[in-house]
Each structure stands twice: as structure tokens, then as C-alpha cells.
Specification:
By secondary structure, the chain is an alpha/beta fold. It is built from 20 helices and 19 strands. The strands form five sheets. The chain has a seven-stranded parallel beta sheet with strand order 3-4-2-5-6-1-9, with helices on both faces. Strands 10-19-18-15-17-16 form a six-stranded parallel beta sheet.
Length: 500
């Protein structure tokens, strides 16, 4: 019985499969686009073919877990794909038909099964927790945490539930992450505690922190007691030695057979308020906001613009002002960057996005470096350290900010509009480009893509589009794809391939 997918694995994937084999706990520490999803599916397929594992539960962030549906279709061996029963959890599945389909899935013991669940549901949704536990407990199962930094916080509700309850019901455990320590070496603890506490050799996070973190006491005015602040780390090579036998590491630069440019999409879930306003704008071209303001579009082009603004978390009102709308796009961006340790470019369509994204990124970086009560975590928007900007609102300073991005290791992100920074700039220090929001302007898109490219570029560049499924986000990308295909036909640029 052939368990390997229809695509021949790369050498590093074959090595990972050999190393992982039938071990109960293993970490695939493979960078984005190096094939960790395929490797995991091939490993499960091998165990299923040997009669050692029946089911697979994949837990991943909301913007990622549905992408496993396509990966399963693409990478499972044809024989296994024909037999597998796949179910994707959704909080919106509340009707009688959905309930019946879920119950039938959980009662099906005649074939291998795969269950996909978003990790956020395990924080608060008891039904999702119960389904996951029952699924794992029924037969021999594998539990995989994709983008395992989602459980790096040892006190988070989802981490506690996964590490104390779910893992006990599984026979095999896997974590997948391109960067398992986005904030500090301490992030590794909960992820490997999920696999097996014996790997790191500590029974508690506090013992692990005491061993590897260097702390000092600080006293703030108005606080009666001093508190400990992490100021450094020690013996981190010891952590690497401990996890090395239980993991497989691959970087993008290790994959010389990868194409020079890679494209992928990260799904963005909408808030209830966004869904309501978007639907009303789409149907009636007008909607009332929570603060009694109104947004109205009198023309189709304006209507599309307003709908796109709603997806980004803000919208122009009838009185000429801008209203903020709760959104998850920024959190999706931050979760994505948790998996990346190099420099990145974030393209935004609106000035409001530049301000919001810059603030969020600076806060994230300060949180990565300093403890919660450390005064150095205060954000100064007029003196950003980790973020550079290039847009119409900083014409006087953007050249200096570009210099920081190119030369200062602490300045990790360039946040820009394509209209301002999309031409004539050389930002090849970045190997990740994220489109926080797009327009249908092909020139803006094609020009902005080239900022991270260069004749001496030796690493692949990953391009990620943040997309709210079923909205004008998708329509804009399809429009760009059509224009790019036409341009490729005319100019012979057949290398332009998007995963859209």
C-alpha cells in the first residue's frame, strides 16, 4: 500500500519522514513553504498503512486551518484520499444538517478520518473541546498542532486544555512551526511540553524559566513591591541540544529547488460587525454603524471601495469622517509574523492601515523584548524603533526610515503604500512580503513585488495575501491574476504563478 503523496518529496522531507517514523512525539520545525504539511500527511499515511494510526486531528489558527483541505486533496496518496473521511469544524455549524453530518462523522469507524479545528475555538467553545476529545479517544489517533506558537503561552486556556487533556487522548503528537521561538527561548516550553515533558526535562514552566532566563528586580513608582524582569538568557544551546533528536529543522535557504518567488493566501475571519456592515453595503449600499453614523455608497465603484474598507476595519462615513470597525486582520498579520524571524515588507492600501499596522507591530516587538510591567514597552509613535514607514504621511522622514530598515537589525518591518514606496526602492533585505490589503491596480502590485527582488538575491521571497474569503478581497486578487496572466502572455513572463 502506497502512503506517499503523488508528488515526490524533496530530500529534506524524506529525511524528516525517516527520522520521525513511528515515534510518538516529534517536531517539524520547517519554514513556511518547505513542505511541512506534506511531510506530516505522509507520516500519518505511513502509520495508517501499517495499522498503527486511524485518525488525524489538525489544530491550527483560524487563518490557516481551512488551507489543510486543499493540502489534503493535493498531498494524500490517491488510495488514501479515496478512503479518508474529512470534516472541518466551524462555529457556524449549528443547523440540524450540520449536526447530523458531524454525528455521522464521529460514528464512522470504517475508514481513516481527519478532523480540522481552529485553535481559537478551544479557548472558549466547550462543544469544540468535547468533539476534539471524543474524536481522539475513539481510536488510535495523531494530534498535530500547526503553527504551534499558538500554544506558546503556558497559561492560555487553549494551551492548558491541549496540554493537559487532549494530548492524553492521542497516541501520536506532532507540532509544525517555522519559528517556534518568536519572542524568546521560553516560547519553546509549552510546545515541547505538549510533545513530551521528558524532552526538555522540566515539570513546570517556572523551573524552565528559572534555568534559562536571566532576571533582575525592578521597582516602579506607585507599586508597593518590586518585580522580576527578564533581561537575558543563558545556556540556550542546551535547549537546542535537548530538542535536536526530537525535531527536524529546514530553512528556506536549504531548499534550492524552490522557485524564486512563492505565493500563498492567509484567510482572515470577519467579526460580526464587519459581516453585518459588509452585507448591508452589498445589498443596500448603505449601513448604520454602532455610533449612529451612516455609510452610504451612491455609485458602484464607491460601493466596492466602502466594502473593501470595511474588511480592513474602517470606513468613510457620510459626514466625511472615518469610523473604526472591529477586525481580525491585524491579529492575523501578527500571528503570521510570529512564524518569521527575518525582515518583512507590509503593503497597505490606506493611510489608516499604515498607522494601525505600524502601532501593532511596534507593540508586538516591544512585548517580545520586555516584560509586561517594564516601562520600556511604552509605544512612541513619533520614534518607532522596530518599524519603518514609507507613505505620503511621512515625506519628510521616510528616507531616514528606509535607511533604518536597510541597516538596523532591530528595524524589522517596512510598512508602506504601493503608491509611495512601490517604485525605485531596493528593499532586498526582506524575504517576506505581506499584502495587508490590495487594490486592483496591476502596476502597484507588480512594482511593489519587485522591491524585495535583486540580482544578488540568494533566498526565496514569500508573498502572502491577507484575504477575507467570499468578499471583494478575492475578487481583487482574481482581477490581478487575470491581468498578470495577460501580461505573461504578452511579455513571455511565464514565471508569474500565483496560488490563487
Amino acid at each position: 500500500m502506497n502512503y506517499v503523496s503523488r508528488f515526490e518529496p524533496w530530500a529534506h522531507q524524506r529525511n524528516a519522514l525517516i527520522k520521525m517514523g513511528g515515534r510518538e512525539a516529534f517536531a517539524l520545525l520547517m519554514a513556511m513553504r518547505t513542505g511541512k504539511t506534506k511531510t506530516l500527511l505522509d507520516n500519518w499515511g505511513e502509520l495508517e498503512a501499517q495499522g498503527e494510526c486511524d485518525d488525524l486531528l489538525v489544530i491550527a489558527p483560524a487563518g490557516v486551518y481551512r488551507t489543510w483541505e486543499k493540502a489534503i486533496r493535493d498531498h494524500l496518496a490517491p488510495e488514501l484520499l479515496a478512503r479518508v473521511n474529512l470534516f472541518t469544524w466551524s462555529a457556524q455549524q449549528k443547523g440540524s444538517k450540520d449536526t447530523a453530518r458531524l454525528e455521522a462523522f464521529l460514528r464512522d469507524f470504517t475508514r481513516p478520518r481527519i478532523l480540522l479545528v481552529n485553535v481559537e475555538a478551544l479557548s472558549t467553545v466547550q462543544r469544540a473541546r468535547t468533539i476534539c476529545y471524543n474524536f481522539l479517544d475513539q481510536r488510535q489517533s495523531m494530534l498535530a498542532i500547526d503553527e504551534s506558537t499558538a500554544i506558546k503561552n503556558p497559561t492560555a486556556k487553549r494551551t492548558v486544555y491541549i496540554n493537559r487533556i487532549l494530548k492524553q487522548a492521542s497516541k501520536y503528537r506532532r507540532i509544525l512551526s517555522g519559528l517556534p521561538t518568536p519572542k524568546s527561548p521560553l516560547d519553546i516550553y509549552s510546545q515541547f511540553d505538549f510533545l513530551d515533558p521528558k524532552i526538555l526535562g522540566f515539570k513546570s514552566y517556572h523551573g524552565f524559566r528559572a534555568r534559562y532566563a536571566v532576571t533582575r528586580q525592578m521597582q516602579l513608582p506607585g507599586r508597593p513591591r518590586p518585580f522580576n524582569v527578564v533581561v537575558g538568557y543563558r545556556d540556550v544551546d542546551e535547549i537546542q541540544e535537548r530538542i535536536l533528536p526530537h525535531s527536524h529543522r529546514v530553512l528556506l535557504e536549504d531548499c534550492y529547488d524552490l522557485p524564486p518567488k512563492m505565493y500563498t493566501i492567509r484567510d482572515v475571519p470577519l467579526t460580526e460587525e464587519q459581516t453585518r456592515i459588509y452585507s448591508e453595503l452589498k445589498e443596500f449600499a448603505t449601513s448604520e454603524l454602532e455610533n449612529n453614523q451612516h455609510v452610504t455608497a451612491s455609485q458602484v465603484i464607491t460601493q466596492i471601495l466602502r466594502m473593501h474598507q470595511v474588511l480592513c476595519g474602517h470606513v468613510g462615513t457620510e459626514d466625511g469622517k472615518f469610523a473604526e470597525i472591529p477586525e481580525r486582520r491585524t491579529d492575523t498579520l501578527l500571528d503570521l509574523l510570529d512564524e518569521h524571524d527575518g525582515k518583512g515588507i507590509i503593503w497597505c492600501s490606506y493611510d489608516a492601515d499604515i498607522r494601525k499596522v505600524s502601532l501593532a507591530l511596534e507593540k508586538q516587538q516591544l512585548e517580545n523584548h520586555y516584560e509586561k510591567d517594564d516601562p520600556r514597552r511604552r509605544v512612541d509613535m513619533d520614534n518607532l524603533k522596530h518599524v519603518a514607514r514609507f507613505w505620503g504621511g511621512n515625506r519628510a522622514t521616510r528616507e531616514n526610515e528606509e535607511y533604518r530598515f536597510l541597516n538596523d537589525p532591530d528595524c524589522r518591518y517596512m510598512v508602506a503604500t504601493a503608491a509611495a514606496g512601490g517604485r525605485g526602492r531596493t528593499w532586498t533585505v526582506a524575504d517576506l512580503v505581506i499584502y495587508y490589503s490590495n487594490t486592483a491596480d496591476l502596476e502597484h502590485r507588480s512594482q511593489s513585488e519587485e522591491r524585495a527582488q535583486g540580482v544578488d538575491k540568494t533566498t526565496s521571497v514569500l508573498y502572502v495575501d491577507l484575504v477575507a474569503p467570499g468578499t471583494v478581497d478575492e475578487k481583487m486578487l482574481k482581477t490581478l491574476r487575470a491581468k498578470i496572466n495577460m501580461a505573461a502572455t504578452i511579455t513571455g513572463d511565464q514565471w508569474r504563478e500565483w496560488i490563487i
